[in-house]
Design a protein that fits this description.
The protein is α/β, with parallel strands linked by helices. The chain contains 14 helices and 24 strands.
């Protein structure tokens, strides 16, 4: 099993080009089930994307990947398409359930394994099923699979989500584009990745409008062949922003839209991080005086739960007591015991992490438990005295493209063994 070895206390200096967004790519890939041919650019070559592509191949699509250009094309093969998403492909990736809506919409039936992914909470698919039922689907759960049918096709309807869900919003949007009639979604997620999905679908012939937390979709669309460039990965950008604040001398993060991560930039500036914002890049300067801060994770445009673990590492450098309230997932502090092994002073009370700083981290052998927790250990290793060994780094590969290469280019010592 592969490990990362990091020797800390080496100042980062240089530039990092931010990759395409994993969380934008996955729903767009799921939606290609409704197309004859799609070409995508700026695709991150990460494990979750490869898993989704393997799922599309299983269903019956041809996939061609250009690794050098981070682009790919997906087209219908001559094989009979198969409206099934098996457990072996969905078990490692919660986004696998996103094929349920397009499969059901196109084939009037679907069999999709209940999803897996990170162990950071229950992440039930209830809201996905709730939305599809509102569009006329009949659904039952049997032997770990979702069996869905709509013999007369899906029909537009009104869906008011009882709570905000990114995945359920995406599934409903994709399914509704192919349903008969108009669909209105209310209390839906408005993450930038959802807007990128809508941008892609509208370029392909859909008629989808945003009005605050309301989305209106005109159904019965016949999609035309489409080209699209995936948006930048705002979580990767936030991760390297925090890394730069921790141990950066002068770091440029390029290929981003700073307006999309304005909340993260605002909070980091408030903590004393020296940041200069340009049109498509951000520069972070040496920031020795980090201030304590209280943060609550929230749906976009709030502070993202996917940056909570990384921010906790920065808080170990702050003077005073900082707090993070996790309001999205109930089990997303699994990185805390590993950070404490490295010397972090963190106490958990219900869904609040209390971080006492500044404290000096020292290298240790630690274990990654999920995607974002694993990268928080990388950040801790970058600032820790001596050597850190991170086990189970396959989590990292699910969502971070060329992490070692990007850090090595900026003078870090990171080695995969």
């Amino acid at each position: 099993m592969q490990k990362l070895i990091i020797k800390g206390k080496k100042n980062l200096f240089g530039s990092i080009k931010i990759s395409g967004s994993k969380n934008a790519t996955l729903p767009i890939l799921a939606s290609t089930i409704l197309f004859k041919k799609v070409s995508l650019k700026n695709v991150p070559m990460v494990r979750d994307v490869f898993t989704m592509l393997e799922l599309l191949r299983y269903i019956g699509f041809k996939v061609k990947i250009n690794y050098k250009k981070n682009s790919l094309s997906i087209s219908k093969s001559n094989l009979k398409l198969n409206p099934i998403a098996p457990y072996k492909l969905v078990k490692t990736m919660r986004a696998g359930v996103l094929v349920l809506g397009p499969l059901l919409s196109k084939f009037k039936k679907a069999k999709v394994s209940l999803p897996g992914g990170c162990a950071i909470g229950t992440r039930p698919v209830d809201l996905h099923l709730f939305a599809l039922k509102k569009l006329g689907a009949k659904i039952r759960i049997k032997e770990g699979y979702i069996h869905a049918s709509a013999l007369n096709g899906l029909r537009g309807g009104k869906i008011n989500f009882p709570s905000i869900s990114v995945g359920a919003t995406e599934n409903a949007i994709i399914a509704a584009t192919h349903a008969i009639g108009k669909t209105t979604l209310t209390n839906c997620a408005i993450e930038p990745e959802i807007k990128d999905l809508i941008k892609f679908l509208n370029k392909s012939g859909s008629k989808i409008k945003f009005e605050g937390r309301k989305i209106i979709i005109e159904g019965s669309v016949e999609f035309k062949n489409s080209n699209h460039k995936i948006m930048f990965d705002r979580i990767e950008a936030g991760t390297y922003l925090i890394a730069s604040a921790l141990i950066g001398k002068k770091m440029n993060l390029i290929g981003i839209d700073p307006k999309i991560i304005s909340e993260e930039i605002r909070i980091l500036k408030k903590m004393g991080v020296k940041i200069r914002v340009f049109q498509n890049k951000v520069t972070v300067f040496y920031s020795p005086n980090i201030k304590n801060q209280n943060i609550k994770t929230a749906p976009y445009p709030g502070f993202p739960t996917d940056l909570q673990a990384q921010m906790m590492v920065l808080m170990t450098k702050a003077k005073g007591i900082s707090k993070i309230k996790e309001s999205i997932f109930e089990n997303r502090f699994m990185h805390v015991p590993e950070l404490k092994r490295m010397g972090a002073k963190i106490e958990i009370k219900n869904n609040i992490a209390i971080v006492k700083g500044p404290c000096y981290l020292s290298g240790a052998e630690v274990m990654a438990t999920d995607l974002r927790a694993s990268v928080s250990l990388v950040l801790a290793g970058l600032v820790a005295e001596s050597r850190t060994i991170i086990n189970r780094i396959y989590h990292l590969d699910r969502g971070y493209e060329n992490l070692e290469k990007k850090l090595l280019k900026c003078k870090a010592f990171v080695k995969r063994v």
